[in-house]
Amino acid sequence: MSGQSYKLNQPIVSITIVDQQRILATVPRHAIVTVEGRVEGTHLVNVEWKGKRAMIFKRDLRERGSLVDGAVALKLSRERQ
Which among 2, 37, 42, 55 has most CB atoms closer than 10 A? Predict the structure, then answer.
């Protein structure tokens, strides 16, 4: 899962850290997120989205996202900026 990119089919609630506080944010439908780091043994995964880091639930990502090829992910994320 690490390094893989997903296109979201539905919005996903994420957790970001701002000024050492956890903040809930919504990653919108059609966003491209890339999984970062090790993902074994945890319910949350770290993702990068539009240069931002967030944590989302693995289950949400699997149920609400579609795996995309790295080159396709790069093209789609550039189109959305």
Answer: 55
d(CA 70, CA 33): 11
CB atoms within 10 A of CB 21: 7
> 3-class DSSP state for residue 63?
helix
pLDDT of 18 reads: 87
Show the domain range for 64: 5-79
16 touches 54 (CB < 8 A): yes
Q: Which pTM value belongs to this model?
A: 0.77
Rounded alpha-carbon distances, angstroms, from residue 59 to 13, 28, 48, 62, 71: 12, 16, 17, 5, 24
Looking at the DSSP bridge assignments, the partners of residue 35 are: 47
Give the closest residue to 60 by CA, choosing from 47, 79, 74, 77: 47
